[in-house]
Amino acid sequence: MNKHNPIVRVFRYLRFYPLEITLNVVFNLLSVLFNLLSFALIVPVIELFFGTSTPPEVPPAFSLDRSTLTDWAMYHIYLCKDQFGIWNSLFIFAGAYLACVLLYDLSRYLGLFFLSPIRNGVLERLRNDIYHKITILPISYFAGHRKGDLISRMSADLADIEWSVVSMLQSLVKDPINVIVFAASLVIISPRLFLTFLLVLPPAVWLIGRIGKSLKRNSYKGQERLGQLMSNYKETLDNLEVIKAYRRERQRQQRFEQVNDNYSRRMLRVARRREAGSPLSEVLGTIGLGFILILGGNAVMGGQLQASIFILFVILFARLIPPVQAIVKAYASLQKGSASARRIFEIIDADERIVEKPDAVTMEGFHSEIRYENISFSYDENNVSHPVLSNVNLTIPKGMKVAIVGPSGAGKTTLADLLPRFYDPTSGHITIDGRDIRDLNIDSLRRNIGVVSQNCILFNDSVYNNITFGLEDIPLDKVRDAARLAGADDFISQMPDGYDSPVGDHGSALSGGQRQRISIARAILRNPPILLLDEATSALDTASQQAVQQSLDNLMQGRTTIVIAHRLSTISNADIIVVLDHGRIVEQGTHSQLLDLHGTYAELVSMQNL
After folding, report:
1. φ, ψ for residue 566 (rounded to 5)?
2. What is the 3-state composition of the chain as percent helix, strand, coil, each rounded to the nearest 5?
3. 242: how many CB neighbours lie within 10 A of its CB?
4. Residue 520 within any structural domain of the chain
5. Which of 31, 145, 243, 375 is positioned for an S-S bond with 108, CB 3.0–4.6 A?
């Protein structure tokens, strides 16, 4: 996994917005300068009313040196007073103050205006990267991760990044500029007084750092608890009928309340630590202000500092505290967001395992045979290897119908899933027409393989879009032809909107047999030379099974087919029947040949005939 700081990795997405970032920084800098200038105009007002200073007789050259800058400002203030009078001068400075405030607000708005596409763009790219990674990760990855937790990462963690990280961009740009500009102004006015403020910084930085570490740790654990909460939601929704049938509502409720309580307690700690930073910075700032008032007042009384300049120093120092607080708050938010970003990048950095070679060859049809050569496969779960297949050798000539049977857990589905590279074997290799499938382009490989499983997957879309899934611009006539071969056209035509009718969530508007026939129509439309039928009729009643079996027979015509079946009566006419047991091929032959062996297959047939 990439070891870089997750917050740094989020900020790397900013490289796609150089113009917007530049304009945001420019307008934030202008807003700070106009804000500073508006406060600086307080000095002329004080001098106009109270005349606390004696201006120099000759205008000094402009310089950032405090003494020279003060003399330059006082000379021009009193020059304006002598030329225009007190009240006219007051209107001039009031107008200048109003202009500065308006320009400050305009610059601040433009800074936020150019920040908006950055905020939305970063989140959009993060969502795209996560979704892309989800679609290319191997199926084995999802077997070891709770789907509720993954959903939590893609929703709650992304939302947390938006509010804890991306929304802080304005503070991370504007507030440091504020601190730098105001601090530089304070140094110019009185380095000695500003040094007083610096004395309280080390303990503040240390305390805020401790809070940040605790915040990051508790936030990560809190997001894990939220993942468990989302998993509990999804598990309950997916199994509501079973929960009600076995009267376990109260038990599930208690379990949910426990997980919810753990999450709430953890997030309470996060909230308390996050909110501690801002009051802490304000207390330390107030302590610094107290020392400044004492030392500054002493300097004014001793004639070392003009009263109006000291008032400006105090005002600017007071204005320095809010951006410092904002930076502290932003730091705390970043630490909280860091936990969510880490969980997001755990998905993005996940090992793809099924990797396509740079020089992968496009598979152009299927011509001779499929070979499994010394195939072994193991699942890895919690760093423990679980063997599934061991030294499997199998040859499937083109046009053959091969059935794979055996007891549950024998490795039948895994053996079939290796062919389209849903998994890669631990050892050995699979070849199509003599070429290792790992040398083939994955898209072209899967384009030549049609899959129909017992858990037929339909999307909450129209019948037409479900049948044409993976294909584009298919005429309705071809879709109807595929549906007729699958035995689906009759019931589709009777639906309210025909092929434009929605099938509902997971095909809930259809019966099991109807869903399966739409899946078969999808496979027929793709017209693949190789078929994988995984328990395609096992979940159906007898009447539906017979109808779907007819559709499957139509589908298998002229194709190389690998059939996985528990109902052995449906595969008695297979060209080859392969019997798996504990990950090994124990028998192989035709239906009659295997019955004559009086082995595992004959025993399975006997049990089903009872």
Report:
1. -95, -35
2. 65, 10, 25
3. 9
4. no
5. 31
pLDDT digits (tens, 9 = 90+) for 413-439: 889 889 988 888 889 999 999 999 999
Burial pattern 336-365, b for ≥16 Cβ within 10 A else e, equals bbbbbbbbbbebeebeeebebeeebeebee
Residues of the chain with pLDDT > 70, as a percent, come to 75
Q: Are residues 120 and 43 in the same domain?
A: yes
The closest alpha carbon to 507, from 575, 467, 461, belongs to 461
- Among residues 302, 321, 348, which one ends one of the domains? 348
How many residues does this entry show for the chain?
A: 610
Same domain for 205 and 56, yes or no, is yes
Q: Using CA atoms, how far apart are residues 515 and 511, in angstroms rounded to an integer?
A: 6
Burial of 75 (0-12, 13-18, 19+ CB in 10 A): middle
| Neighbouring C-beta atoms of residue 507, cutoff 10 Å | 22
**In Å, what is the CA distance from 299 to each residue of 95, 310, 370, 523?**
32, 9, 93, 89
Task: Verify that 180 and 234 share a domain, yes or no.
Answer: yes
Same domain membership, residue 394 and residue 338: no
CATH of the domain at 161: 1.20.1560.10
Asked whether residue 115 falls in the same domain as residue 28, the answer is yes
Domain membership flag for residue 155? yes
Q: Which domain holds residue 259?
A: 6-348
Count the Cβ atoms, other than its own, within 10 Å of residue 317: 25
Would the pTM of this model clear 0.70, i.e. be above it?
A: no
Min mean pLDDT across 217-221, 320-324, 520-524 is at 217-221
Give the pair of three-digit tokens for residue 223. 């997001």
373 and 338 fall within a common domain: no
By the 10 Å C-beta count (0-12 exposed, 13-18 middle, 19+ buried), 477 is classed as exposed
Last residue in a domain, options 348, 378, 402: 348
Domain count, the chain: 2
Q: Give the end-to-end CA distance of the chain in Å, rounded to a whole number.
A: 54
State the DSSP code for 382: T
